[in-house]
Specification:
By secondary structure, the chain is an alpha+beta fold. The chain folds into two domains: 160 residues, NADH Oxidase; 108 residues, no CATH class. It has 13 helices and ten strands. The strands form four sheets. A four-stranded antiparallel β-sheet has the order 1-2-7-4, with helices on both faces. Strand 5 and strand 6 form a beta hairpin. The protein is globular and about 60 Å long.
């Protein structure tokens, strides 16, 4: 196998585009030096709340060679999920990313195809696919590989397309040509900080996960704290406020992934419909959706909390 890092990188990016990914960037698999103190401080301040899994595998989160032995490159990929239609304005809301089929399945399938392509075209390459389900700092890798910058709301932002996309990785034992990070374009804007209903963005670029509506409505398994009464802005699963107000998301264009299209019923349901939802309707509407994570009982808990 004749090593040709630039040619391989170009071929991988072309195939990623063919598979429907929005963009692809590549960085060297090495210790994330800048992220280490940030992550340590964030955990020490208990900003992960009850998400105890965030404390696990600290070294693997920062060093991909510990996660995938022999790895040399991190291939980061973005997949658009911005919908062409959104829910009824007056309804209880779910995050746009959860409208259609659970992204884990959709993206994992595309990553497997991309890895198969690399093995067919380049040769004996080993690697693993990751979609937000392993100790990988997705946003840090995407920023390192030039796909965008981390915004003040701590999401990845890209000039042309905003932030409504999923991030995934292939970590492989293949040397490739690497991309360079881009500069930060948040400037003096504080739209996301000002708009957050629970003041979860405690300082620019730092989100207290334990104050985020997404944390309360998805991750927290206990009762919702009464101190948050009236602060959820009608979000019953996740929250998009910091992204909705971001000026860069004016450039978001609708995705072209049929699997991300919502059940038509989802878009037309009113508050009353949600309040009266049965388990059967829940199972039907969210049959393959990420919303199933919160279970019917969790969604009911969230709706009851919003009704107070």
């Amino acid at each position: 196998m004749i090593e040709n890092p630039s040619k391989y990188a170009a071929e991988i990016k072309q195939e990623a585009k063919r598979l429907g990914f929005m963009s692809c960037g590549i960085s060297k698999a090495e210790f994330l030096e800048e992220e280490a103190p940030r992550l340590e401080k964030w955990l020490q301040k208990n900003r992960h709340g009850e998400m105890s899994y965030m404390e696990n595998h600290f070294d693997k989160r920062l060093d991909p060679t510990k996660l995938v032995p022999g790895s040399k490159s991190v291939i980061s990929l973005l997949l658009n999920y911005f919908p062409s239609e959104t829910q009824d304005e007056s309804a209880y809301k779910i995050s746009k990313y959860a409208y259609g089929t659970d992204y884990h399945f959709v993206i994992k399938d595309k990553l497997k195809q991309l890895l198969a392509f690399i093995q067919d075209e380049i040769g004996d390459v080993h690697g693993r696919a990751f979609v937000d389900s392993a100790p990988v700092l997705d946003k840090a890798w995407a920023a390192k590989s030039g796909l965008g910058w981390i915004g003040k709301h701590s999401n990845l932002l890209t000039k042309q397309v905003g932030s409504f996309y999923f991030i995934a990785e292939l970590i492989v034992d293949l040397d490739l040509a690497y991309d360079s990070p881009v500069t930060d374009h948040c400037g003096a804007c504080t739209a996301c900080i000002d708009a957050c209903p629970t003041q979860a963005i405690v300082e620019p670029y730092v989100v207290d996960g334990s104050k985020c509506i997404s944390y309360f409505t998805i991750e927290l398994k206990n009762e919702l704290p009464t101190s948050m009464n009236g602060k959820f802005d009608d979000w019953m699963f996740g929250c998009d406020v910091c992204q909705d107000v971001c000026p860069w998301n004016r450039f978001s264009k609708a995705h072209r992934e049929p699997l991300f299209n919502p059940n038509p019923e989802l878009l037309s349901m009113s508050k009353k419909d949600w309040e009266e939802i049965t388990e059967e309707v829940f199972q039907e509407i969210f049959r393959k959706s990420a919303v199933k994570r919160t279970k019917f009982s969790g969604l009911q808990r969230n709706i009851d909390f919003l009704k107070k």
